[in-house]
Amino acid sequence: MLTKAGNRTYEGLIYPEMRPRLSAMERGILKWAVIDRDDRVLDIGLGNGLMVDYLRRHMECEVCGVSDNMELVRSTRALVCSADLVYAPVGDIPWRDGAFQTVLMRAKRMEPEMLRLQLEEVARVMKDGAQLVMGIECLPRVIGTVKRLLNDGMSQEPDAISRKHAEQILRDLGFEHFSWQRVALECGVLICWKKNPLEENWNQAEA
Predict the structure, then answer these.
(1) What is the rounded CA–CA span in Å between residue 164 and residue 186?
(2) Measuring CA to CA, which residue among 16, 18, 31, 63 is closest to residue 44?
(3) How large is the C-alpha radius of gyration of the chain?
(4) Distance from C-alpha of 123 to C-alpha of 170, rounded to nearest angstrom
(5) Which pLDDT tens digit goes with each residue over 46-91?
(6) SS3 of 64, please?
(7) How distant is the alpha carbon of residue 113 from its chain centre?
(8) Which class for 154: exposed (0-12), middle (13-18), buried (19 or more C-beta within 10 A)?
(9) Minimal CA–CA distance to 41: which of 28, 55, 54?
(10) pTM of the model
């Protein structure tokens, strides 16, 4: 006779496709996120909801989420009842200024002006000294060049976001301490921190 735990293990072995998993990008985002107990964390994009569920179960933090896809919001609400999850268009994050210690973001394909608008909103809702962990599609240069040549004129979808372009926008918005971690062949995470004027003034005074 199988216990509940044994039954879950059995189902996972027999029907692995029925057990959704975190993507490589989401695993990388969670690996590099610095989250303390009782922090407020914002998940932008939601994915399949597993990252919100993981944070709620294991990190003892307050999790909020926003997506411009209503179906993702509904499915994540069904998975995680206790998180504050909302629908909003790109460039609109309906929380007050300085609401979050950490923001986790999957950078979806969008036009450059929409990316800047979205990152301006991200900066607005982050506290001074808060961390942004941003997952970005990033194929190796040779593979990316071949893919663009094959798709030239065939796709109406915007190009994948450039890591350097995203980093430049974030520097303009007052972020610092950038690092890049590749987490799979096709993606990586950009990690940075919003400047803290009080800390900066303190360091200058000590110098």
Answers:
(1) 16
(2) 63
(3) 19
(4) 8
(5) 988 999 999 998 988 999 999 999 999 999 999 888 889 999 998 8
(6) strand
(7) 19
(8) exposed
(9) 55
(10) 0.80
